[in-house]
Structure formats: structure tokens, C-alpha cells
Amino acid sequence: QAGAQDAYQNNPNSRTIEVLQSMANYYDRVNDHWRTTGYRKAITTLKRQATRITTEEEAFQLPHIGRRIAQKIEEIVTTNKLQRLEYAQDEPMDGALQVFLRIYGVGNKQAQQWVAQGYRTLEDIKSKAKLNPSQRVGVEHYDDLNTRIPRREVEALAAFVRRAAARIDAQAELIIGGSYRRGSTSSGDIDFIVTKLDTESVAQLRPFLDELVRALEKDGFLTARLASFHAGGDGSKWHGCCVLPKTKGINDRDYRPVWRRIDFLLVPASEMGGALIYFTGNDIFNRSMRLLASKKGMRLNQRGLYKDVIRGPGRVHVTEGELVEGRDERKIFDILGVKWREPHERWC
Ligand code: DCP
Ligand code: MG
Ligand code: MN
Known about the structure:
Layout: H1 14-29, H2 33-47, H3 56-61, H4 67-79, H5 83-88, H6 91-101, H7 108-116, H8 122-128, H9 133-140, H10 142-145, E1 149-150, H11 151-168, E2 173-176, H12 178-181, E3 186-187, E4 190-195, H13 206-218, E5 222-226, E6 237-243, E7 259-266, H14 272-280, H15 283-295, E8 299-301, E9 304-307, E10 322-325, H16 329-336
Magnesium ion (MG) is lined by residues 178-179, 187-189, 191.
């Protein structure tokens, strides 16, 4: 089947490319974007070579090939394999990394460190690793927190929260964002946007959220507060866990409390449009909207669309600029010149 053959199979460096591709795949699996990109660029360079690259020095002269990858190229050519790859493909080690990466509050660096320390199972982590309080919750409730929430349960959880909210402030409004708003049949967590008519700052909403959290904790609904590296410094985000009480028709058969992830985002009415876009996602859709804004000399963030942003080197913004639109989701699309997309059409 000639058509299925990749062009590089006729390349004098095909074996090298094949091994480097396995490395790229490995780094992609462990979410190491930086190394993945490094390997991909090196592969692209090798595919363009008309001759076989056999030494480190030769490889190092080529564009996008650094010293480390150059050394590996020589190793592949001389031994026909790569020690690092065999190490990466060590099953228990690779499997452990995947398990650790799914613990709430654990990033790549931490997971890799644990693997390097010789930990292989959740039991190892539970009994031997040094955990912060969030990671402790992540380990103790690993299975629950890695199970998706059926849409019906998201709605039942929301009903519970809304009842408590109405008792505190009948004017408060709670909108479910995230994958639920995109129409997903199940969600990784429940994402609430909390707002109120005529509010203009997060500070105006903070007392309400504090009271809501206290009430829901008293009910036994909220079961943990979590710190998160994503948490905004302005106090607009709250992360935690909750449990749906026994509810007829939803979880009343063989009831067992299941821990779920819950997020609140405080949004003043004046910033609702920006927040709806941000908290509806998905993350890839958001990234493309932000990039588009930046190409048009504007800036889109969770609070709205800004213009006359002054940028320094590397597109870093120096000034926030002037708010163009914050309140209205549709207007933000309009001003950016993007055709309106319903939430269920925002899967990237
Ligand atoms: N978000 C983002 N960039 C991130 C993380 C989140 O733009 N790095 C935005 C888009 C997401 C929203 O926040 O849709 C909610 O984040 P979640 O992590 O809860 O993601 P989803 O709700 O989309 O999916 P899931 O069903 O896994 O919760
Ligand atoms: Mg979500
Ligand atoms: Mn979330």
C-alpha cells in the first residue's frame, strides 16, 4: 500500500526520524509541550536533509537541533536505538506518571519528581509522598474526582446551590458555565458564574459568596476548599469539592456520597460578556479568540475586550487599554468580527 507510506520513509534519516518521533509522542503523552515541540522541530529539519546525518556535530549545525537532540541523533545512528526512549517506555514508570498526573493539584513537574523518587502507585503517594492539602484531597478522592458528572447530576447539584443562594440573596444569579453550557452530556466539574444586577466589582459579590460557602459547608454540601494554581489573585475564583445529598431519582439507589469538583467565578454584571466567553470555553476556543483580539491590537480576558493595549516585546501587554465591551457576549463577537457561535458550537 504505497499511498500509506510517509514521505520520510525514503529519507536517508528515516530510522532516526522514527525514533525521535517516538520521543515526541512520549513527551506529548506526559504533557511536556516544550520538549514535544523541540522534537517535532528537529524531525522537520531532518526530513529536509538529502543526506544521512551521522554525527552529533553534523546534526548540531542544522537549524532547530540543539546539543541534546544532536547527541541523541548520533546515539541512534551508532546503536540503532535510544537509551532514553527505552527508559521512557518503561511500562510501570510511564503508567505511574499517567496515574499521578490525574491527581488534583499535581502538575507535570511534581508527577515526574515522584516517579524519579521511585513511587509507582497511588498507595506509595498516599503513604510516602509529601502532599499539600489540595493534593491530599486529590489522592483520597482519586476515583470520584476522575469520574465525569452526568448532566442530570450537574443540574441536581445546581438546584441545591441555587436554593441555598436564594435564601441568602434572592437577587443573586447563578449560571452554569463550562462544558455544561456547551451542552456536554457529562462534565469534569461544575462551573458556576455568580453575578447580580447592577454590580461593577468583584468586591460587591464577595460577601455573598463567603456567606454561600459557609451555608453550603454547614449543609455538608461543600466538603473541601482547594487551592489551585489557576486561581485568580483578585479573589474572583473559588475552587472546592461538593457532594450531592441523597436525591430521589438521581442517586437514591445504594446511596454513596460521591465527591465532585465545583468552581465559582464571581462576575460583576458589567463584565458578564467577557466572563461568559471565558467560562464557557472550551479552552482552545478561548485561546483562538484571544489570539484574534491580540492580532487586532485588542485584548480579550475574562473581564472583557480592551483596545489601545500597548505591548512590549513578545506581545506582553504594558497597559491594560480602554474597555471596549464587557457586558455583552454577542457584542464582543461582533467587534472582533467573528460570526456568533452558540455555546454548543464552541468545542474549539
Ligand atoms: N478555561 C480556559 N483555560 C484554561 C482552563 C479553563 O480558558 N486553561 C476556561 C474554559 C473552560 C472553563 O474555563 O471551558 C472551565 O474550565 P474547566 O476546566 O472546568 O473546563 P470545562 O468545563 O470546559 O470541561 P470539564 O467538563 O472537563 O470541566
Ligand atoms: Mg468544567
Ligand atoms: Mn472548572
